Amino acid sequence: MRVGALCATALIIIMAWSGIGFAQTKPTLHLITVADTEDGLVGKEFGLNNEEIKRYAGSLAGTTDLVLDTKEIVGKDYSCANINAAVLNLRVQSHDVVIFYHSGHGTSPKKDINDKARSKFPSLQCTTDLTAALPNLEDISNALRLKGARLTITAADSCNRIPEQELAPGYGKAAILPPRNRIRTMFLNFKGYILISGASTDEFAFYKRNDFGEFTKQFLNALDYPPNVEPESLWREVLTRASKVLPTPPHAPSPPEPPLQEFQHPQHVEELTYVSPAVGSVTVEGVAAQAIVRKASQADKPKTKKKKHKKKHHQIAKTSPSD
After folding, report:
1. Core-most of 119, 163, 237, 323, by most CB within 10 Å?
2. Residue numbers of the domain that contains 71
């Protein structure tokens, strides 16, 4: 009698443990989306950007059968401390996917355009304390990569100006259905990391009034509609499209003056390994790598003359800088 009870208890424990193990091994899409929605100038546009990122993540989770786990930092919760905590406290498994996206003001950590010691990616302006250390996008990418997820994407639609000033960009939805099989390949059969931002050093990132960022539009359009290429080339082609040079949108500075910059140059670095899918398998664990996608640098910039501006307070009539 007692032996039977013990066996039954053991069986229940084994089944419960097995159930827990199954839950823990289910691939998850971890989304950390951060937006400065209470900013006095472009908080509304940052919020629209944030909603579009969440829409994309939901669609992606449905396409890839990944379980969506969202950490959203907006409104009064938007702070450097909360951003750092979200990154620090994230727990992932080796077959998970991580996306970090920042919609808010940014600034270059460089002292000048020739500064090679500091990151070319923006630091996030998540505090009003001018003496505080700002989290840098590249540092966030490095911290997230150490978590060990299969694929890590760290992105910001934020200005990257060397401290002084900032400004704002549109696209239309394509009329075709997203190619489900290509999207699944991108997120289920690649390992590595992607680091991308909407502006190069000393540039503004643009947002149109009542709309989300120009870079975000271009990035999500590239992600939603990947080209019909060989599987191992998918991310390379998508990132090439996402990093196309963006023209400065029409704006009306006040008092009248020339545009602050003519183009916005997205930049990216990635290190990705394509893994051939095992027959009948959803994940890519234990499968030999077939091809390595080389690192990419930022898009070539057209040579344009920079114009100097004295005042920081100029605003545009129909577009806004993200700073």
Report:
1. 323
2. 28-321
